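Sharing in case it's useful to others searching the archive later.

Someone asked me privately for the predicted structure of Alpha/beta hydrolase family protein, so I'm posting the question and my answer publicly. Question first, with the sequence:
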Amino acid sequence: MSSGPREVLTRPAPDPDVTVAYGALPDQVADLRRPVGAGPTRPLVVVVHGGFWRAEYDRAHTGPLAAGLAALGYPVAQVEYRRTGQPGGGWPATLTDVRDAVATLPGLAARELPDRVAPGPPLLVGHSAGGHLALYVAATAPETMAGVLALAPVADLAEAYRRDLDGGAVAALLGGGPTEVPDRYAHADPSISVPTRTPAVVVHGVLDEQVPIALSRAFVAKARAMGAPVSLVELARCEHFGLIDPASPAWPEVTGALRSLQQGQRPLTQRR
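And my answer, the predicted structure tokens:
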């Protein structure tokens, strides 16, 4: 029996097929999962885990999500990156690690998973702080990706700082608040540096207590006003962790949004 929404964070998942390095440091690695079954090649899906950028959360907790996507026929890469509380973590390495990984992983995956990865840039799936990192890459290196599925993303760093989400997590990432390091916010905050070229779907649960849905609503409204191909799917009965749980009622919404990105469809803003 499930012990609650957080149970997915420690649920065992099958081991990845192979771990590859996109850099020279211990945390510059990614776990690759081969798509299950025979089927057509699909673009690589790069999963960027959350945990408010902190060292105590690593890629292991996205194992069920990654295995669930592989079961649907997607080749999957679970990215690790340097995090706050680790040597080198925080500004700017946490952000640049993910940007470097997204640029490098399609080639590594094609080599390690021959005939299973469609040519071309990957799709990004980022949850929570990983959603922020995915939107950051979309804004700063849009040519390296085909689309972003942002699940309960921290899409407004300045507002997250004001709300003191996870006890100072944004200040730990960027080294201060918006008035102290404004140039860092201008570069790293999706609500300021809006990704306008990359198709994106934001999925957020109305019951989310870790990252309030107000951040996604404001971000999507601003992005759409700027002409960005971004949409929002609001899930009325979903909290923060159901979005990464293949056993949750939210899973069909998550996989449907990913499918729409893969097919190049422009999704519509919806409330469900």
